[in-house]
Amino acid sequence: MPQGWKKDYIVSDGKRWIVETVFSSIKRMFGEYVYSVRLKNIIREMMLKASYMII
What global pTM score does this model have? Predict the structure, then answer.
């Protein structure tokens, strides 16, 4: 491993809670699972779930 790798991870590790909060919120709103496999279909599935929540 190159020197300084710890320093890079320590700096970025402080922002992990933000990402975890976003993922938790998305899972709460849309459910635990996404059934689609392809990225295009995942986006469609999430848009469909979001449109159901608006209605």
Answer: 0.48
